[in-house]
Specification:
Layout lengths: L2 E7 L4 E6 L9 E3 L3 H8 L6 E7 L9
Parallel strand pairs: 1-4
Antiparallel strand pairs: 1-2, 2-3
């Protein structure tokens, strides 16, 4: 089943929420703003993750 995810990016952390094909949250994780931490959290979902949306403000646009 295809999955998607959302990232709510803050200056020193982020909230990652993978969502299944029915729109149900699979989990909610608060992580450091670290690419390795994000990838490790998404790894169990493999290729099921089809896309990620990122919510950030203009003041944090340099974080990614």
């Amino acid at each position: 089943m295809a999955m998607y995810g959302g990232i709510d990016l803050h200056s020193n952390n982020l909230v990652l929420v993978p969502v299944d094909g029915d729109g149900q949250q699979v989990r909610v994780r608060k992580l450091a703003t670290d690419l390795r931490a994000i990838l490790e959290e998404l790894l169990p979902f493999g290729e099921a993750i089809q896309g990620l949306a990122v919510n950030l403000t203009d003041t944090h646009s340099g974080c990614l």
